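Input structure tokens:
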């Protein structure tokens, strides 16, 4: 039982570390986007891309959402 608890605590610590890294990366990306002219960062970028994809003239190969990595 101690081993299982230790493994769970180690897994939680690993996941918390990954969350911290992802939050930092997202904040950095958001800041760069704001400085590049997207007033609300990632939110504005997503809206802009959705508008572009909705246009019939926008060249795209398929309309399926790509798998996230």
């Amino acid at each position: 039982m101690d081993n299982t608890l230790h493994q769970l605590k180690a897994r939680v610590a690993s996941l918390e570390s990954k969350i911290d890294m992802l939050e930092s990366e997202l904040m950095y990306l958001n800041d760069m986007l704001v400085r590049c002219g997207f007033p609300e960062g990632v939110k504005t970028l997503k809206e802009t891309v959705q508008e572009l994809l909705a246009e019939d003239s926008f060249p795209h190969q398929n309309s399926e959402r790509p798998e996230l990595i």
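The radius of gyration is 19 Å. The chain is about 70% helix and 0% strand.
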